[in-house]
Amino acid sequence: MATLSDKHLLTLWTEAGKHAALSELMAPLAGVINEIVSIDELHLFSFYGAGEWRLSGSWQRGGAEGVLAHIEATGSHALASIDAWNRGCAVCSDQSSAGHRSLIAILLGASYASRDSILLPMRREKQLIGIAALICDSACSARQCEHLVALAEPLLACIENDQQLNDIQRLRAKAEADRQSLLSRLGLRSISENIVGADRGLKQVMQRVNQVAPTPAGVLILGETGAGKEVIARAIHERSTRHDGPFLRVNCGALPPELIDSELFGHEKGSFTGAHASRRGWFERAGGGTLFLDEVGELPPAAQVRLLRVLQDGIIQKVGSERDVQVDVRVVAATHRDLPKMVQEGSFREDLWYRLAVFPIILPTLNERLDDIEDLARHFIQRAAMRMGVPVPPLSAADVRNLKRYSWPGNIRELGSVLERAVILGHGEYLDLEMALGAPAPKPRAAIQDTADKSSGPADESLEAVIAAHIKRILTETKGRVDGPYGAAKRLDINVSTLRAKLRKLDIDANDFKGA
User: Fold this and answer.
1) Is the CB of residue 200 less than 8 Å from the CB of residue 372?
2) Is pTM beyond 0.70 here?
3) Quick check: helix, strand or coil at residue 407?
4) How many CB atoms lie within 10 A of CB 214?
5) What is the mean pLDDT of residues 133-143?
6) CB 301 within 8 A of CB 351
7) Bond into 440 cis (ω within 30)
8) Nearest CA to 366 among 375, 355, 357, 354?
9) 290-294/247-251 β-pairing
10) pLDDT at 444 over 80
11) Cys staple from 73: which of 53, 291, 444, 456, with CB 3.0 to 4.6 Å?
């Protein structure tokens, strides 16, 4: 047999780098070993934690790979035998040792105990990770055993790669199971299911989504709370070249100021009190995919500076580390705040605004999508019924009219909650919309307008005060919205610029009515 050479080691390391699965590696591994010592069989065992040793790969001369069936060593006797052998074996053992023969019988069966064999331990930082069992043609010389010991490191790398691949496959299977469970609870068939209103109220929005999704450009989604910003962000991800990568959402407004850097960029072990281990941040975990920064307007100034650097250079620095880490992430940001106004006030960086708003998308409110309410209602009713396991209650024309009369300050999120409540109250037999909305039922918009027109202040109130009061009532009903088909200007039947001039003259700030 040939002696060990750099060529053998290079071949092993090359094969370990080319293949992650041991099933693809066993034949090349056996080929290299056979140039050192003639073997009939090669079996690799891995420690999987929780007291379990498992056969990872198997090869037999003239036979198929995977010749042995699934083997596990989990009993207390087996584990004690492995531990005793490990403590008594420095580099390798052969059939001359009683502990060796006992372990061979445990791992491969009693029929192997009398055959010429070698057991090679594979350790990482003194921890036994793997065992290579070689069944030989004849007894090995001390020189051959020395050569085999030198192969322990690349063999261990093969085992570790295989374990990582198995871990990834298990995590992927778990993630898929969680995804299917989530879809079932939501009453959806797929994440990329058609968006309700894509052909009506969201037609222009979806046109912009389809324009920007295939590009690497950053996107800023602007819209009121509950308008569906995350749905649009997911639509951008699903239609992009990154759709196979992760889509992660982080609510910037929910991050404690002292933990923002750690959450976004990660930290090293010991970098602060409680940092017991290194941790990847959201940017690293979203590598190759999309990171959705919801409520980005809530970030404090210091975090805005660090976010700007990531957007410009694609580089992060973990807390407690001096090493730069390159990240490949597409950022989609969203906010309900008036960022241009915040820029003017100095509470939001102007350069970050320009970097985020490469391609802005403005979401209409539900009041601006009245034609979509019926389709949205049917979608939410079906979803609620599926989640609760009850029949889908009918949606009447009267129900639709009542839904369209309501002002929906919480937008689509509120609509979904109301309809779920209505399904619960109706026990799946009917839709108890009046109770779900809160008795008495909301007045029609026309009735609200008539009431506002008929109400008046004291007889001696000035005309300017009456006009101001009337404008304030309209702004209250439109939630501070000035323009658009459901804005105050449209309700008052005047030009938008005329209304804005009147607001300045009367010292009325439309933003004061957004939460009304």
Assistant:
1) yes
2) no
3) coil
4) 11
5) 84
6) no
7) yes
8) 375
9) parallel
10) no
11) 53
